[in-house]
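Posting this for the archive.
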Amino acid sequence: MTISMTTTTTSGLDLHGYLERTGATAEPPSLAALGRLQAAHVRTFPFEHVDVLLDQHPGVTLAAIQEKFLRRGRGGYCFEHATLFHAVVRELGYDAELRLARVGDPSVAPRTHLGVVVTVDGVRHLSDPGIGIPPLAPVPLADGARLDGGIWAHRVQRVAEGPSGPGWQLWRERAAGWELMHTTDELPVRAVDVAMGHHWTSTAPTSHFRRTFLVGRHGVAPDGTPTQTTVTLEGVTERRAGTPSTHRPLDLAELPALLEDLGVRLSREELRGLVGRLRELSA
């Protein structure tokens, strides 16, 4: 795999194509507008890592991500979501920076998650459109800050993270209690850091994304209630804010229709390859 070291700028961004695809509008920067943009993003582009399983990932340059997200009717994982969202919010006039994070136990986890920190009216917020089941709005980077609404409540906790400064842990409240999602540090992120994180995540035999299957996408019910669908090897889970989740086994025969509904449009060859790979993982 070639590791690209192109700069993390908005050069080449197809803002019109992004807004057309998501149905969002180019509003003046504000916290409310940022929240609407983030919700539109995660309800349009699914979280998925199919290309990793098929050994055909095109990379995480802005050009490759736009081709995949805007023109091929696909989604991706954190390195793609955050790179595209970061370019969009900067083009719209926001003060935004990329940040890497450790998923799970920060004492052993590598920096293999990418999010966006956006400053609005002097307050820094974590916008995290690529965490799998992401928050629907930005969360303030302040110890104890809480975001309600969406599928789950989220909160931020400040922790010591070494000489680079504080770390910021994102937690979500599930039925069994609070669950740590990731710990974001304050180190500046360059394009080579994104490329290296993606390279490890998409090729290392021990990478979670090489050994599992996950597709998820936010939605909204007719009455405006947030919904979310997740497909894994363990089954199909339907979530609706304020009600218990439903879960059923996955039949691989229904996978093409499920992927189409969730916005993961694959060729026949890709579908055959994916089903074969999932059979291997199931075995």
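The mean pLDDT is 93. The chain is about 30% helix and 30% strand.
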